[in-house]
Amino acid sequence: MKYKLVTTTKRRDLIDKGDEIVIDVWPEFMLHDAVANEWFFELYEKFPEFQYWLLDGEEIVGIGNSIPLSWEDKLENLPEEGWDWALEKGFKDKDKNLKTNLICALSITINPKYQGKGISTEMIRSMVQIGRKHKLESLIIPVRPTLKKDYPLVDIRKYITWKRDDGQLFDPWLRVHEKLSGKIIKVCSKAMKISGTISDWENWTEMKFPEKGKYIIPGALKPVEFDIKKDVGIYIEPNVWVEHKL
Ligand SMILES: CC(C)(COP(=O)(O)OP(=O)(O)OC[C@H]1O[C@@H](n2cnc3c(N)ncnc32)[C@H](O)[C@@H]1OP(=O)(O)O)[C@@H](O)C(=O)NCCC(=O)NCCS
To answer: Which atom of ligand 1 is nearest to the CA of 119?
Structure first.
C-alpha cells in the first residue's frame, strides 16, 4: 500500500486533525445525528484499534471508523436502522462482553486533496485488514450511496439497481464496493435519523422553511420533512447494507 495505516492505539494525536477534515467534507446536517452525538467520540476511547487513518508522511489522506459487532442471525435480517443501530449495538455488545464476529464500517472520509485517486479502495482494504487481524468473519457496511443526493425523489430500492453502459453499478461508492466483491444485502431505509428545530435546520442548510412539507436539501439522499407548528424537521437517511467476506 502506498500510504501508511495507523490506528488510534498508536496515534491519538491525529483525532482532532482528522475531525477537521470530516467537518469540512460532510454536509453540516449530517453531523447532527443523535446516536452519533451520544457515542461517536467514545469510539476513540473504547475501540481505538478500529479507528484508523491513512497517512502520506504526516498528512492525513483518509479517516476510517468502524466497530466490532456480535451478530448470530442471517445478514438478510440486519435491521432497517443500519448505522444508528450498529453504533449503539457495538457499545452494548462490549458492555455485555459478547464475542464479536463482524466489523461494521461507520465512516470513510477522504481528504479532498486526495479524492478521485482511488484511495477509497485502500480505505476499505484497510478495514478488511483490521477485521482479519481481529479474526472477524465479515465486514458489513451501511453504505451511503454518494450520488443518491442528486436523485432525492427516486426510491433507493430502484436507485441501487441502476447500471452504467458498461454493466457496473451507477453509484460510484457502491461501485467501489462492487469492484472489491462486496455483496449488496438489502436497503436499510432508516439508517440515520437527524432531527432538529426549524432554526437548527436553517443554520445547517442556509435555507428557509416557511411552510409545512417536504424539502429537497443539498446533500440529503431524500427529502426532509418539516412541521412548523411542532417546530421540527426530520431527515431519515436510507443506506444499503453491503457485506465483504473476510
Ligand atoms: C466517497 C469517497 C469516500 C470516495 O473516495 P475517493 O477516494 O475520492 O474515490 P475514488 O477515487 O476511489 O473513486 C471511486 C469511484 O468514484 C468516482 N468518483 C470519485 N469522485 C466522484 C464524484 N465527485 N462524482 C462522481 N463520481 C466520483 C470515481 O471516478 C470512481 O469511479 P470508477 O469506478 O468509475 O473508477 C470520498 O469522495 C469522500 O470522502 N466523500 C465524502 C464522505 C463520504 O461520502 N463518504 C462515503 C460514505 S461513508
So the answer is: 7
Handedness of CA 125, 118, 240, 55 (dihedral sign): positive
Q: Does this model's pTM top 0.85?
A: yes
Nearest of 148, 146, 147, 128 to residue 138 by alpha carbon: 128
Ligand 1 center from residue 213 Cα (angstroms): 32
Extract the runs of DSSP E, i.e. beta strands, from the chain: 4-7, 51-56, 59-69, 102-110, 138-143, 183-196, 213-215, 224-227, 232-245
Closest residue by Cα to atom 32, ligand 1, is 172
pLDDT in single tens digits along all 246 residues of the chain: 789 999 999 999 999 999 999 999 999 999 999 999 999 999 999 999 999 999 999 999 999 999 999 999 999 999 999 999 999 999 999 999 999 999 999 999 999 999 999 999 999 999 999 999 999 999 999 999 999 999 999 999 999 999 999 999 999 999 999 999 999 999 999 999 999 999 999 999 999 999 999 999 999 999 999 999 999 999 999 999 999 999
CATH topology for the 4-191+238-245 domain: Aminopeptidase (3.40.630)
CA separation, residue 86 to residues 67, 91, 92, 103, 117 (Å) = 8, 9, 10, 10, 29
Which residues, judged by CB distance below 6 Å to any ligand atom, belong to the binding site of ligand 1? 25, 107-110, 115-121, 144, 146-147, 172-173, 175-176
Q: How far is the CA of 241 from the centre of ligand 1 (A)?
A: 18
> How many CB atoms neighbour CB 163 within 10 A?
11
Domain ranges of the chain: 4-191+238-245
